[in-house]
């Protein structure tokens, strides 16, 4: 008789034994954007035992064309991606334990999450976090599957600690400029292609078939139907600071969070206060209402001012959309949110 | 002859997906510099390269008949 | 400012002009299984103007690992796939007009649907229907995008009337045996890969960029990372009965539906009565309750007997699951459903 | 030498993804018959074929150095 996974068990690369193993494994998906959405859905549908997904953002209208877990209602209500993802994933498969965290991933808060995982799927959108994942993967010997795209072009690589080169061997520094969805746009088929390669490799790892892994850096362009597999046998560096003999894990050196942290990008400035704080959303809402339209749910409060928008997260972070100017952002932060503090 | 394959933004910048040139003897880094100067490509220093489908570092010397792939990093996810 | 399609418009292959064109076009997706689900979702997210989707089946548990529009609730309540698909698609994008039909596709009922479409996406699971699509595509000059898979292997081709060979040129007869999900299983990444190639070609057609189409038969295996593009320049046959000079459209010759039609496959027999009929589900339910568990919604009534299961559709069709024997199926049909008739 | 590439179920049936044989001069159909007899492959009559990435019909004669791809139809959707 047909069971839930019968067509997957029929595939010779998985089988009934593979299905059983899959159901005992734990996947960590870092980021619930386009790649994280697609890969999490595939693995939850496939029946992985536990899936942890983390993301710091909330759903916006410009995400919907490529981020398959979300609906218009999620954009309308500014649902945090991690929470919206979990809701959809559990409606798809309640047998998978789905853990979701609204979290700004950093070396310290990722450390515990990576340790508990059998594989890490890269669903992030920047190389800062990928170099942190890379160090954690080496430190705790958890494989991670890199994926990235822009336009119609994507790439993927499966990093196996002690066996393949690591990201630091391949790229000796964090690329200072790289093509992203903000510079080159993106079409959904390029997302699906990248995710398909990532989840295929994940299925091999989760069914204990390391010998079947691809072992090449894969490049592809779905618009031009190009594909190239690049061998990486000579790339591993014995003096690599992340995977070499005298490794120091340079991206795990915790910055001391003693002052306001400010990140720029995408016409947005992120401000993180020196210590974690909890806001009183009701009090904040009634005050901010005098300055602009206010919407909120239990995770986030959004206030639309005349020329920009404040998104205040329960974990303390504030995103100021509509400006790239740090001084302006800091000014708004102090004026409206953290009046009492420096 | 050396064949160069372009991916992603490089394809758009140069307007084609490959180029054949007579530049055996150059290193990968020298080839990048030549492409920046002669074909107006930008910021090739962070572009990855593969020679005959083997990942290559900048000091690798190109031989007659080699195929070089130039791969700009992409970060979207 | 970010708009819904801003990242897609930023992609040089689409642009603002392409986005506008896309929003004026009409796609027909034949089948709402794995490929139909994936492709319909991509195109609705991308903002196509109108999407028509048809399917004859209802959602079953064994679909969920690869058919991305459906949830456990759809399987539990036996929602027809076309209806469940429409609900999800509209929650994703209410600006796309989604038309859904619970319909057993045949030459006659497809004829009108194909005429109204700018492109047809193949989401079917058998070659009988694909040869009908092929003839309709030629007759009404509507391009269609073939896709098929089994295991981790897939293929796709874009058929352009008057320009490329047609399916009949490539396969002179309907393959009598072919690998399917029932014989070889399927993994979801192979679905995503096939759909990604189909929707990329569809995006080119829908933005009027025929010159960018791939023009090769594409094969790929996501588990082994194989890909091959096969040229088809020499394949078009001038004496082809579907696309040649003296064409007869052999698959459009309508069978006269004067008798009970019986189709076998997948441990299921389908019976279609000679004329369309409407059932009184309430009367049928109260009678069938004496023989087995009965569930129903407005489209379908399902009765589980001791060794098989009857699925009765409002359009007249009956699926008898759990047997391959035509005589047994006919016996059950006459005993429980069409007692008064021959 | 002729190189044969196997896809999908053929790969599993023969246990590898390619095979090199000395069979120049055979037609595609004769090659299929030979593979059925010598390697126990099944039902190759409905298998599609490409020679050097060009779709080929059964009467095409194979030349030294050709690469033949054998592609069984798949129907799932």
From TrEMBL, chains A, C:
Keywords, ordered alphabetically: Nucleotidyltransferase, Transferase
GO molecular function: nucleotidyltransferase activity; sulfotransferase activity; thiosulfate-cyanide sulfurtransferase activity; ubiquitin-like modifier activating enzyme activity
InterPro entries with a match to the protein in the record: ThiF/MoeB/HesA, ThiF_NAD_FAD-bd, Ubiquitin-activating_enz
Family to which this protein belongs: Belongs to the HesA/MoeB/ThiF family.
Keyword flag tRNA-binding: no
Name of the protein this chain belongs to: Adenylyltransferase and sulfurtransferase
Claim: Transferase is one of the keywords in the record: yes
UniProtKB/TrEMBL annotation, chains B, D:
Listed GO CC annotations: molybdopterin adenylyltransferase complex
PANTHER family hit by this protein: MOLYBDOPTERIN SYNTHASE SULFUR CARRIER SUBUNIT (PTHR33359:SF1)
The entry's keywords: Molybdenum cofactor biosynthesis, Nucleotide-binding
Pathway annotation: Cofactor biosynthesis; molybdopterin biosynthesis
CDD domains in alphabetical order: Ubl_MoaD
Protein origin, superkingdom: Bacteria
MF GO annotations: nucleotide binding
Name recorded for this polypeptide: Molybdopterin synthase sulfur carrier subunit
Subunit composition and interactions: Heterotetramer of 2 MoaD subunits and 2 MoaE subunits. Forms a stable heterotetrameric complex of 2 MoaD and 2 MoeB during adenylation of MoaD by MoeB. During catalysis MoaD shuttles between the two heterotetrameric complexes.
InterPro entries the record matches: Beta-grasp_dom_sf (IPR012675), MoaD_arc-typ (IPR010038), MOCS2A (IPR044672), Mopterin_synth/thiamin_S_b (IPR016155), ThiS/MoaD-like (IPR003749)
Gene Ontology biological process: Mo-molybdopterin cofactor biosynthetic process
Family: Belongs to the MoaD family.
Function: Involved in sulfur transfer in the conversion of molybdopterin precursor Z to molybdopterin.
């Amino acid at each position: 008789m047909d069971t839930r996974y019968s067509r997957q068990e029929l595939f010779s690369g998985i089988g009934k034994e593979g299905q059983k193993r899959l159901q005992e494994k734990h996947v960590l998906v870092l980021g619930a954007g386009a790649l994280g959405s697609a890969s999490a859905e595939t693995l939850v549908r496939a029946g992985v035992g536990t899936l942890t997904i983390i993301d710091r953002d909330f759903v916006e209208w410009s995400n919907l064309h490529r981020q398959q877990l979300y609906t218009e209602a999620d954009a309308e209500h500014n649902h945090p991606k991690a929470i919206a993802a979990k809701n959809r994933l559990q409606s798809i498969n309640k047998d998978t334990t789905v853990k979701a965290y609204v979290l700004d991933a950093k070396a310290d808060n990722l450390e515990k999450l990576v340790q508990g995982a059998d594989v890490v799927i890269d669903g992030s959108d920047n190389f800062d976090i990928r170099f942190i994942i890379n160090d954690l993967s080496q430190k705790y010997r958890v494989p991670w599957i890199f994926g990235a795209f822009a336009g119609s072009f994507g790439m993927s690589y499966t990093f196996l600690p002690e066996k393949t080169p690591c990201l630091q061997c391949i790229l000796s520094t964090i690329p200072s400029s790289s093509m992203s969805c903000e510079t080159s746009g993106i079409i959904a088929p390029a997302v699906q292609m990248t995710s398909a390669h990532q989840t295929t490799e994940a299925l091999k790892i989760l069914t204990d078939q390391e010998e079947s892994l691809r072992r090449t850096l894969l490049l592809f362009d779905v618009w031009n139907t190009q594909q190239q597999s690049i061998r990486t046998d000579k790339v591993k560096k014995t003096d690599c600071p992340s995977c070499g003999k005298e490794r120091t894990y340079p991206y795990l050196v915790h910055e001391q969070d003693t002052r306001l942290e400010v990140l720029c990008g995408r016409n947005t400035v992120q401000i993180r206060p020196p210590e974690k704080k909890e806001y009183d959303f009701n009090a904040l809402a009634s005050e901010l209402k005098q300055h602009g339209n206010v919407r909120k749910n239990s995770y986030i409060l959004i206030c639309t001012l005349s020329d920009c928008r404040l998104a205040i997260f329960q974990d303390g972070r504030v995103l100021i959309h509509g400006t790239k100017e740090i001084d302006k952002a800091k000014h708004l932060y102090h004026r409206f949110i953290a009046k009492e503090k420096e | 002859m050396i064949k160069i394959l372009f991916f992603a933004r490089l394809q758009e910048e140069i307007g084609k997906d490959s180029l054949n040139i007579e530049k055996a003897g150059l290193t990968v880094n020298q080839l990048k510099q030549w492409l920046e100067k002669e074909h107006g490509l930008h910021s090739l220093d962070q572009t990855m390269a593969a020679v005959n489908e083997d990942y290559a570092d900048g000091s690798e010397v190109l031989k007659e008949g080699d195929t070089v792939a130039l791969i700009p990093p992409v970060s979207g996810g």
